[in-house]
Amino acid sequence: MTASPTPLLAINDLHVSVEGKQILNGLTLQVRVGEVHAIMGPNGSGKSTLAHVLAGRPGYEITAGTVSYEGCDLLALAPEERARQGVFLGFQYPVEIPGVNNVYLLKAAVNAVRKQRGLPEVDAFEFLGLVREKMKLMHIEDSFLSRGVNEGFSGGEKKRNEVLQMLVLEPRLAILDETDSGLDIDALKVVAGGVNSLRSPERACVLVTHYQRLLEYVVPDIVHVLVRGRIARRGDRTLALELERRGYDWVTEEAA
Amino acid sequence: MSTPLTARIVEEHANAFRALPLAGAAATRRRTALAALTASGLPTSRDENWKYANLRPLERLRFIPAPAAQPLAATDLPAAIPGFARYVFVDGAFAPALSAALHSTAAAVTPLAAAPDGDRAPAAMPAQTPAPHAPADERFALLNEAFATDGAAIRVAAHHDEPVRLELVFVASADALTGASYPRVELHLDSQAQLLLIERHMSAGAQASFVNSAVTVDLGRGATLHHYRLQELAARATVFDTLIATVARDACYRLYGISIGAQSARSTLAVRLAGERADLTLAVVALGDRQQVQDIFARVEHAAPGARTEQIFRGISAGRARVAFNGKIVVGSEAHGTDSRQSLRGLLAGPEAEIDVRPQLEIYTDEVRCSHGATVGKLDESMLFYLLSRGLEPEVAQRLLKWVFLEDVVAKIGVAELRRQIEERLAQQVPEPAARAEST
Ligand SMILES: Nc1ncnc2c1ncn2[C@@H]1O[C@H](COP(=O)(O)OP(=O)(O)O)[C@@H](O)[C@H]1O
Ligand SMILES: [Mg+2]
Question: I need a surface site. Which of A128, A187, A208, B217 has the fewest CB within 10 A?
């Protein structure tokens, strides 16, 4: 594999604190197009913090370090600008918004990206066709379209909805925060199928996960282990299997 | 308690008396109301439940009924709601030319000016024999009683088909310096009667009108009333509104209030659940912007066992507005098995805006289920971030969430055309993100 000159995402020595508490401690990570990265780590190690910081969630203080995306300063962009430039966050805990229906949100999101690229709004009819097709792939029922965003969805439905949004938006960089947790094996396969369908030489994907189960279906190029806010270990997919077998303690101890 | 204000009311009343219909019992009622008002005075900001109301305009305005208004055209009015008869009152006086009479054997609407006393529903006039010291919350109703020249007396009998559909439109056109408008509704539903009632208060033109409305509602056993109230007076208007309702056994009252207009608006809603299993939904939306004052006080009294109340308030305060909702629920000693729920939420949409929501519970019996939630805040941060992370403009995301917030009440409005008009009106104050409605 020939490495392209500039990575799609380059995180360098990132330090982040929340309410005065240091969470990320000098995290460095590079993601090139075409790659799938897995970020694993024990609970509380800072995985969601990283995902949120990349998506631009307010409330995090970046005390040092840089993040560049497509060669530009990602941290200088507002959350909606990041989304329009192709950064997608699949939430660990997708938010329920009763009163805003799913199809409205999907359409608004797609049109936001199109506007950024100077394209006209989507044709409503064609768009619906496209959404229905992706819904089929994600095993989501038709009635879903007119329901409120995540309103009354089960845990698994919420996760499938995140992947559906990703499929419709076709982001350049997808960051999926524990999209696999709480899924039964069938739902996991559906989610994995969705993620795989988006793999391409133009895109990259960062899978945040606690277990290696998802990685059996979405095979990562690189596995990182996050411990206390920094990458403690890197490896190929066999690292995930080793973690599965031995747990996280040995990495944590090594990192201490 | 004679104050300069009550002295002036009495004086204006004496001067206006010639113009006020004198017929029989009506004149007595006026005098009694005036006497009670003189004895107790209008509320002041020191009275409990009145500290958020803006009472200052009272010092300047005139109390005599406004002189006859310029005729209006039907096009000055909102589009008719399909299936609803319409009765229009301009500055408190019935305007037959603008109205479309009800054709129903089950119901009668009589303009009060024309109503012989016998036609007026007896139970619909609690102010008829006011206590010497009327509770502060009902004194504006006395003012209305003393001055009102017209209004609607409505009686609905039991019937088996569709509910009766009726719209009352009260238009204010006079400036407060020339006189006031006194909308008045006396509503009586017989046992098992059903009514859908729309009550609008609006302006013709942009005058700084003074409106003082009084509505009495008397629901007989098993009666059902869906009552939609929309206050959309012009930006300089002052309005005081008093609604007093009694709900008998097994009767169901759904009261929806949308308060958007006026410079200064105060609504007093007093509902007594008098019979077993009486059922009340009281849902209110208030929007304040600029320097508006929107003050709502709702008192619900559970006086019988097994009655149910659901109270919902959604208010948004922007600019330098002040929005307040004070929801009091009193559960009397007989009212075991009461089920009451209050969900009061306010949204602050500006650094200088004020909002206050206050649930109050007074319980004098055991075995009740009373829950309440009251929150004031900004838009939900995690919802907002979720929408932004999908690329939505912050402006659009915020508007969307304001709509979501109001939807808790608006979605309950069962008359489709009315809901459309209300959403359109709300959108003038809280612009609705394009295509939100279209895709739902
Ligand atoms: N808003 C917050 N306020 C305070 N502490 C937080 C906040 N968010 C996360 N943390 C803390 O930061 C640490 C990392 O959390 P998180 O990034 O959610 O970890 P992970 O996703 O790896 O489980 C935890 O100790 C958590 O308690
Ligand atoms: Mg997490």
Answer: A128
| Rounded Cα distance, A237 and A223, in Å | 6
Rounded distance between C-alpha atoms, residue B258 and residue B228, angstroms: 8
| B408 min Cα distance to partner chain A (Å) | 8
- pLDDT, residue A107, reads 94
Phi/psi for B331 (5° steps) reads -105, 110
Q: Please give the helix or strand (H or E) that residue B309 lies within, else none.
A: strand B308-317
* Residues A101-158: tens digit of each pLDDT: 899 999 999 999 999 999 999 998 999 999 999 999 999 998 888 899 999 999 999 9
Question: Cβ < 6 Å from ligand 1: which residues?
Answer: A 18-19, 21, 23, 41, 43-49
Q: Contact at 8 Å (CB) between B344 and B300? A: no
Contact by Cβ (8 Å): B196, B166: yes
Q: What is the DSSP letter of B17?
A: G
Share of chain B above pLDDT 70, in %: 91
Please write the tens of the pLDDT for every residue from B119-170: 454 433 444 444 445 677 889 999 999 999 889 999 999 987 889 999 999 9
The C-alpha atoms of residue A80 and residue B264 are separated, in whole angstroms, by: 39
pLDDT of residue B125: 42
Q: Cα–Cα distance between B247 and B220 in angstroms, integer?
A: 7
Q: Which atom of ligand 1 is nearest to the CA of A229?
A: 14
- Mean of all residue pLDDT scores within chain A: 93
- Each domain of chain B, given as residue ranges in start order, spans 4-274
ipTM computed for the complex = 0.96
Does residue B410 sit at the A interface (CB-CB below 8 Å)?
Answer: no
Nearest CA to ligand 1 atom 4: A18
Residues B233 and B205 sit within 8 Å (Cβ to Cβ)? no
CA A236 to chain centre: 19
